[in-house]
Amino acid sequence: MTKKESNTFFKGALILAVSNILIKIIGAVFKIPLTRIVGDYAMGLYNTAYTYYTILLTIATAGLPIAISKMISESRALGKYSLAKRIFRMALLTCAALGLFGTVVMLLAPSVLGKFFPAAYGVLFNNPDTIESLWALAPAVLFISVAAAFRGYFQGHNDMLPTALSQLTEALCRLFVGLALAYLFIKIGLAQKFIAAGAIFGITFGTLLSALLLFGIFLYRKKKAGNELDALQDDRSGKTIFNNLMSIAVPVTIGALVINLTNFIDTIMIPSRLLSIGEYTRDRVTELYGIYTSYAVSMFNLVPNVLISINASITPVVAAAYAREDKKELHSTLTSAIRLVIIISAPAAVGISVLSQPILSLLFGVGESANIAAGALSILSFGSLFLCISSLASTILQSLGKASIPVYNMLIGAGLKLLANFFLIAIPGVELLGAAIGTVICYAVIAILNLAYLAKFIGFKPSLSTYLRPLIATVVMGAIAFFVCNLISGIFISIVVSIGTAAIGYGVVLIAIGGITREDVKLLPKGEKIANLLRLK
Length: 537
Prior knowledge:
By secondary structure, this protein is an all-alpha fold.
């Protein structure tokens, strides 16, 4: 990777990483008080509607932004600027059509989808209390689909700032609008189903503002930019452009649907398998589902949601390098990205696992719900490491034109999760832990298979130190966090001191054993100064 290209990649990754960190902070500010205020049952309704939304959202937006980014980046790298514009126009129309379709389906979901699931396996889907939340969220599918087209356009220009700004807009609206409506509906004494709908409407309002913001930036940039002259002519038809978009987008979308399938599996199987034990009512399994998704899964998604910025940044860089057949740059980019993912995600996963009980007690209050979720989170957090690696490897394969490979691997992982959920959740005493174990197995298998195919396809084999040295430092960090937390009384103080000492210990060990080098740090903005400060060789 050239210095200019590496700076572009890491600048884009840094912008989206900072944005995603802020978004997660805003999300925590929203979801923590919301969960405390509305209770586990309303959160069960909220998360059920959100599962519908993510499935339809994935169909409309998962593959197209990547396809847009890849095709525009490749076209611009070859000097085909007019083609890049035509690609965007076709993509915008496609996204809008799919978004409208998704909105209509979501409005009809309560009367249609529930019929596909018998009562035993559709406990939440057959609950009439979810209807209001589904209707409040339905327009968001259209709005976010349009926003996704603009995000793909900007990312294809290696410009991650508009995406970051639009995501922050969504998060802030979710916070202020969603929390305000939920609080208002509680104060006037509405039923829990309306409170859940009010909370989830913040997402709809946020996606509308996000789409408008991106459209405004697009118009401003278009007016400001001059005409770019084509170095090469490419007169491919609109039908050909559409087919090219779909050839990339469809496999990516299927792969993303498989990831969402794991959440869908939990939505169906956690309540149904808990009911099979014979000790719980429908309302109680809805509460337990709310506990698992609002407490444990929210923390599980923390690190992957932050690191997904690397995926968005790496797509145009990999696509351009592959189009130029620059194998050296390609391998350098992949090694840097995977190393960065492991250095961040491994200690975060172990730290969340070790401190799951005090973290959840601090955020959601000491009580039965936090205790139930802590056990699941202590297992589930390890899955976030494998999810980060598998997600990055999937994005790389998609950028290399091998989008079907991650799909097959994800189907294998989802199948294993399905089996694990079926057998483990129904065991008294295991219950929610079974869902967590199934998720870890799922993403571990996907990560291994994706990396194995990268080695086979392009001969990409990172050195053992890329994985081993950060993991050694992570083990030391986990031990420090565990012992420090148990030595100090007081939840808040113990967490702060544990995280602080563990982070210092991790950094010292990582540098001491050569887990991070001067060359790695130099790829970051101000990397030379940071490397000198840390005295890296």
